[in-house]
C-alpha cells in the first residue's frame, strides 16, 4: 500500500507476490510448521493478497471523480449495514463491480469491511472480510457483461456469493478455534451459521432484485452526463 | 507519561499487534488465563462502566465454544463419562475450555481496540501507509453521517407529500427502497460536485498533506520499549518450545523452567500494561491533588 514510484518494483510486486511469495508461504507452511500454525499461514496469505491489489490501485492515475464515486459507494455499503437483518453490502459491491469495473469492485468491498468494522469491531477477521468482499466485487467485474444481460444469472450470483461469503468466514472461525483445518469443527460452524447464511443469501437476492436496475441506470446516467 | 488512550497511534498499534499476536498462537493455559483476565480488567478500567449485556453475551459464547470440542472429539486418556457410546474425555473438555477462553480473551482485547483506536487514529496510520486509500476512507467516513441526516430529510419530505406510509409492511419496504434509491442518486451527484471542486482546488497536483495532533514523545518511547522487550522474551520462549503445552493424548504439565517463567511474567506484564498505566496516572493525579 506504500507509494512505489519505480515501475520495475511495481511490476516485481505484481508478479512476485501472487506467483512466488504466496505459493512459497503455503508450501513452507505445509512442510516446516506443524498443522497448528495454519492460522498464521492463512492470515499471511490474506494480507499478501490485499497488498497485491492495493499496490496496483495506488499507482494508477485514477481520476478524482472515479475515486469519489468509489467512496460514495463504500459509504452506501456501510450505511446499509445498520439495517437490521438485511445487509445490502454485498449487493452494492456486486453492482459496483458490474458497472465500475473489477478493481473498483474490489476496492469498495474491501474498504467497506474496514469502515463498517470501525463501528462494529475490528479484529484479525477484518483481513478475511476484506478479501471475501473484495473478491466478490472483483469477480462481479470480470463477469460484467453476462451479469448485465441476464437477470437470472445476476440473482444466482448474488445468492451464491452470499453463501460463499459465509463459507469463507467459517474457514477462518475454524482455523481460529482449532488452529488447523478441521472438517468436524468446520461442519458444526457451518450448521450454527445457517441463519446468517440464509439471511446473506436472501438479502442479496432482494437487494439485487430491487436495486440492480435502478442503480445501473443511475450509474449509466452518470456516465452519459459527466463522462465518468 | 499520559493515559493509555493518548499515546501515539502507531505505538498503540504495535502494542495491540504484540499482545494479540502472542496470545493468538499459544495454547498455554497460563498465557490464555493471563490474556483473558488482562483484557477483561483493561476493558473495565478503560471503559469506566459496566456492560452487563456484553459480558453475558460473551459468557454464552464461551459456553457454546467450550462444549463444541468434547462433543466432536474423543481423543484423550481420561474418560469422564460416556454419552451414546461416545466417551467424553477430560482432555477434550479442557481443550475446549481453553480454546474458548483464548477466543473470548482476544474478543475482549479487540473491544478495547475498538474503544481506543478511533477513526482519526486509524486514518493517521493509514495516511502514512497509503495517501489515496486514506483519502477514500476519510471521504467514506464523512459520507456516512451526511447520508444519515439527508435520509431523515428525505423521509420527512416523503411523509409530508403523503407518499410514504408506514402502516403496512409492503408499503414500508417499498418506501424504504425508494428512499435508498433517492439517497443513491443524491449522493452520486453530490460526489461529482465534490470531485470537481477537488480538481479545481488542485487535488493531485502536489503530494497530499495532512494534519494530525499526534506527536512521538518520550512517554511513547518508554511505552514502546516496555512493550517490545517482553514480546521478544515471549517469542524467544515460544520459539524454543519452552512454553508449549499439549492436550492430547494426555496433558503435559505446565513447564516451570526459568525461561518459561520469564515468558509468563512477561505476558502478564504485557497483558496488564494498559491497566498499570491508567493506575499510575490516577496515583499521580491523587498525589498532585494532595499537594495543593
Concise structural overview:
The complex is a heterodimer of chains A (228) and B (292). Chain A has 228 residues and is mainly alpha-helical.
CATH topology of the largest domain in chain A: Arp2/3 complex 21 kDa subunit ARPC3
Total domain modules of chain B: 2
How many DSSP E strands of chain B?
Answer: 2
The gyration radius over C-alpha positions of chain B equals 26 Å
Number of domains of chain A: 2
Helices and strands of chain B, in N-to-C order? HHHEEHHHHHH
The H-and-E topology of chain A, N to C, reads as HHHHHHHHHH
Q: What is the terminal-to-terminal distance of chain B?
A: 21 Å
Oligomeric state of the chains in view:
heterodimer
Number of beta-strand segments of chain A: 0
CATH class of the largest domain in chain A: Mainly Alpha
User: DSSP strand (E) fraction of chain A?
Assistant: under 5%
Structure description:
The complex is a heterodimer of chains A (228) and B (292). By secondary structure, chain A is mainly α. Chain A has 2 domains: 1-61; 62-226, Arp2/3 complex 21 kDa subunit ARPC3 (Orthogonal Bundle), CATH 1.10.1760.20. Helices cover 83% and strands 0% of the residues of chain A. Chain A has helices at residues 7-31, 38-59, 64-80, 89-100, 102-120, 125-142, 144-149, 151-178, 183-192, 194-226. Chain A is globular. Chain B is mostly helical and 292 residues long. Chain B is 73% helix and 3% strand. Chain B contains 9 helices and 2 strands, in the order αααββαααααα. Chain B has a two-stranded antiparallel ribbon with strand order 1-2. In chain B, strand 1 (79-83) and strand 2 (86-89) form a beta hairpin. In chain B, helix 5 packs across helix 6 (131-161). The chains are: A mainly alpha (228), B mainly alpha (292). The interface between A and B is large, with 53 and 56 residues.
Amino acid at each position: 500500500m506504500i507509494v512505489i514510484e519505480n515501475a520495475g518494483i511495481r511490476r516485481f510486486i505484481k508478479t512476485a507476490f501472487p506467483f512466488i511469495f504466496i505459493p512459497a508461504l503455503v508450501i513452507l507452511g505445509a512442510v516446516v510448521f506443524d498443522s497448528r500454525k495454519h492460522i498464521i499461514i492463512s492470515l499471511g496469505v490474506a494480507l499478501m493478497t490485499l497488498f497485491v491489489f492495493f499496490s496496483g490501485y495506488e499507482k494508477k492515475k485514477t481520476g478524482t471523480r472515479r475515486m469519489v464515486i468509489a467512496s460514495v459507494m463504500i459509504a452506501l455499503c456501510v450505511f446499509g449495514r445498520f439495517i437490521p437483518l438485511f445487509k445490502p453490502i454485498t449487493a452494492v459491491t456486486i453492482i459496483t463491480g458490474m458497472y465500475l469495473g473489477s478493481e473498483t469492485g474490489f476496492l469498495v468491498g474491501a474498504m467497506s469491511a474496514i469502515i463498517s468494522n470501525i463501528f462494529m469491531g475490528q479484529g484479525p477477521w477484518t483481513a478475511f472480510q476484506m478479501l471475501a468482499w473484495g473478491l466478490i466485487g472483483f469477480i462481479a467485474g470480470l463477469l460484467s457483461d453476462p451479469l448485465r444481460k441476464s437477470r437470472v444469472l445476476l440473482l444466482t450470483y448474488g445468492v451464491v456469493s452470499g453463501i460463499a461469503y459465509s463459507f469463507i468466514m467459517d474457514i477462518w472461525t475454524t482455523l481460529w478455534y482449532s488452529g488447523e483445518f478441521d472438517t468436524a469443527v468446520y461442519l458444526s460452524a457451518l450448521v450454527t451459521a445457517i441463519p446468517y447464511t440464509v439471511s446473506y443469501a436472501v438479502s442479496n437476492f432482494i437487494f439485487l432484485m430491487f436495486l440492480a436496475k435502478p442503480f445501473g441506470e443511475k450509474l449509466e446516467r452518470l456516465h452519459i452526463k459527466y463522462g465518468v | 507519561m499520559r493515559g493509555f488512550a493518548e499515546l501515539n497511534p502507531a505505538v498503540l498499534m504495535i502494542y495491540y499487534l504484540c499482545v494479540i499476536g502472542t496470545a493468538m498462537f499459544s495454547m498455554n493455559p497460563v498465557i490464555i488465563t493471563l490474556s483473558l483476565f488482562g483484557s477483561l480488567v483493561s476493558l473495565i478500567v478503560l471503559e469506566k462502566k459496566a456492560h452487563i449485556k456484553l459480558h453475558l453475551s460473551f459468557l454464552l459464547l464461551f459456553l457454546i465454544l467450550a462444549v463444541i470440542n468434547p462433543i466432536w472429539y474423543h481423543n484423550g486418556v481420561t474418560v469422564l463419562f460416556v454419552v451414546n457410546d461416545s466417551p467424553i474425555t477430560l482432555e477434550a473438555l479442557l481443550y475446549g475450555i481453553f480454546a474458548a477462553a483464548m477466543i473470548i480473551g482476544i474478543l475482549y482485547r479487540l473491544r478495547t481496540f475498538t474503544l481506543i483506536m478511533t477513526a482519526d487514529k486509524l486514518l493517521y496510520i493509514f495516511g502514512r501507509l497509503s495517501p489515496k486509500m486514506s483519502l477514500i476512507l476519510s471521504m467514506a467516513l464523512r459520507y456516512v453521517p451526511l447520508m444519515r441526516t439527508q435520509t431523515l430529510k428525505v423521509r420527512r419530505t416523503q411523509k409530508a407529500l403523503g407518499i410514504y406510509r408506514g402502516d403496512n409492511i409492503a408499503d414500508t419496504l417499498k418506501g424504504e427502497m425508494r428512499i435508498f434509491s433517492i439517497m443513491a442518486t443524491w449522493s452520486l451527484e453530490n460526489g461529482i460536485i465534490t470531485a470537481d471542486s477537488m480538481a479545481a482546488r488542485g487535488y493531485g497536483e502536489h503530494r497530499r498533506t495532512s494534519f494530525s495532533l499526534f506527536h512521538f514523545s518520550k512517554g511513547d518511547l518508554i511505552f514502546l520499549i516496555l512493550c517490545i522487550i517482553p514480546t521478544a522474551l515471549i517469542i524467544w520462549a515460544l520459539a524454543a518450545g519452552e512454553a508449549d503445552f499439549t492436550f492430547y493424548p494426555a496433558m503435559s504439565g505446565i513447564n516451570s523452567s526459568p525461561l518459561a517463567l520469564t515468558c509468563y511474567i512477561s505476558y502478564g506484564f504485557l497483558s496488564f500494561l494498559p491497566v498499570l498505566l491508567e493506575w499510575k496516572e490516577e496515583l499521580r493525579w491523587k498525589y498532585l491533588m494532595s499537594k495543593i
